[in-house]
Amino acid sequence: MLEQLPTERYDRQIMLPEIGPEGQAKLARARVLVVGVGGLGSPIALYLAGAGVGTLGLVDNDTVSRSNLQRQVLYGEEEVGRAKALCARQRLEALNHDILVRDHVCRLTPENAAELIGQYDLVVDGCDNFATRYLIDDTCAAQDKPYIYGAIRAFDGQVSVFNHPQRRVRYRHLFPDEATMLRMPVPPRGVLGVTPGIVGSVEASEALKLIAGFGEPLVGKLWTIDLLTMQAHVITL
Question: Which residue has the higher pLDDT, 8 or 155?
Answer without folding.
Answer: 155
